[in-house]
Specification:
This is Heme chaperone HemW. With 385 residues, the chain is an alpha/beta fold. The protein contains 14 helices and 17 strands. α2 packs parallel to α3, α3 packs parallel to α4 and α7 runs parallel beside α9.
């Protein structure tokens, strides 16, 4: 006789698979063009003055790549870069039209595009809104002109004030800030208060990471800039968390804060390790149990079948990514019985409970320890894998 438990397990499995089938995927589109490479940028992007291909050709190739995922249901779109806002409204509309022609978009909830404050144009924004884009992510990074210059940003504070004039035209927008340069702890209070005056629904605040192949790495080597030490950065981070919480923002992910209901639906797919499609030069995706990355060279991307790396994700790897990404979230991640048992013993042995919250089978990092989350997540992954 088939046991009741087995029947229930099968029913739950079928239910979850159906949810996965009918739930929309995320769609990321990479625009690898910019006015000038920022000093800290480690993404694949090319200054527009140096590219050898036409934007119209790039969009044509993008639309061909869309055909590979024809009729997929999507519920979030994110156009990033690079600097997508340097495209003309007609070029952006061409991309949007390709999305509508190739994907099922009736359940589309969130459509984000990144905007550089330098080329902010309210008429262009209104055209984007008419085309269906309903969320805008502005790369402010700082309100201080000296800091913006060190970061290699081309906009200045006056550009941010120009955006403020049109604040009421945005129902859903996100602003970015960067901290970590020397004495940022003295600057951050005024920066945050200026940011809060915009009353954005979402805020992303990143601790400056210095990557080897960036201009800022050379600047640091040549003593042209200094970074705050770890203690100062930790204090800055704590201050940021406290002030944003006082102003109604939920710290839902290590670097992200949102008013209720305005968490980034698209980025939550990454952190919960849900399927998403990546299109364009250097874009990555997780689709049909395959993790892939496209060529970073446009010629190879166009002529060699888009993808440079494709890797099937096995069960153990899926578990690795699910835990690694999920622990970035305030909500944490649900563990199965085996994972819970291993981690529980590890915590008891190493006295790690003070850093984490255990609730039923869910584990999450306490908010006050988010700043050292990389180290904490690394210790858990080392123990499990």
């Amino acid at each position: 006789m088939i046991s009741y438990v087995l029947v229930q397990t099968v029913i739950i499995y079928i239910f979850l698979k159906n949810i996965e089938i009918y739930m929309g995927k995320g769609l990321y589109i990479h625009i690898p063009l910019c006015f000038k490479k920022c000093n800290y940028c480690n993404f694949v992007s090319y200054p527009i003055s140096k590219v050898k291909f036409k934007i119209t050709d790039y969009i044509k190739t993008l639309k061909k790549e869309m055909k590979e995922f024809e009729n997929e249901k999507i519920d979030t779109v994110y156009i990033g870069g690079g600097t997508p806002s340097l495209l003309d409204p007609e070029e952006i509309e061409n991309i949007v039209s390709g999305i509508k022609q190739n994907f099922k978009v009736s359940g589309l909830e969130e459509f984000t595009i990144e905007i550089n404050p330098f080329d902010f144009n309210i008429e262009n924004i209104r055209k984007m809104q008419k085309s269906g884009i309903n969320r805008f992510s502005f790369g402010f990074q700082s309100f201080d002109n000296n800091k913006l210059e060190k970061l290699g940003r081309i906009h200045r504070r006056r550009d941010l004030e120009n955006i403020k004039k049109y604040r009421e035209e945005f129902n859903n927008f996100s602003l970015d800030l960067i901290f970590g340069l020397k004495n940022d702890i003295k600057l951050i209070e005024s920066e945050l208060r200026k940011l809060i005056e915009f009353n954005p629904q979402h805020i992303s605040i990143y601790n400056l990471k210095v990557e080897k192949n960036t201009k800022i790495f050379k600047m640091l080597e040549n003593n042209k800039i200094e970074l705050d030490n770890e203690d100062a950065q930790s204090k800055t981070y704590s201050y940021i968390n406290r002030l944003l919480k006082e102003n109604g923002y939920n710290h839902y992910e290590i670097s992200n804060y949102a008013k209720k209901g305005f968490e980034s639906k698209h980025n939550l797919k990454y952190w919960r390790f849900k399927p998403y499609i990546g299109l364009g030069v250097s874009a990555s995706g997780y689709y049909d149990n395959i993790l892939y990355t496209n060529y970073s060279s446009y010629d190879k991307y166009k002529n060699n079948g888009y993808k440079s790396i494709q890797k099937e994700i096995k069960k153990v790897q899926k578990r690795y990514f699910r835990i690694m990404m999920g622990l970035r979230l305030k909500e944490g991640v649900i563990l199965n019985k085996e994972e819970y048992s291993i981690i529980r013993k590890f915590f008891d042995k190493n006295n790690l409970d003070k850093y984490f919250i255990f609730r039923n089978k869910r584990i999450s990092i306490k908010e006050k320890y988010f700043f050292i989350s990389n180290s904490l997540i690394g210790r858990i992954l080392d123990e499990l894998f």
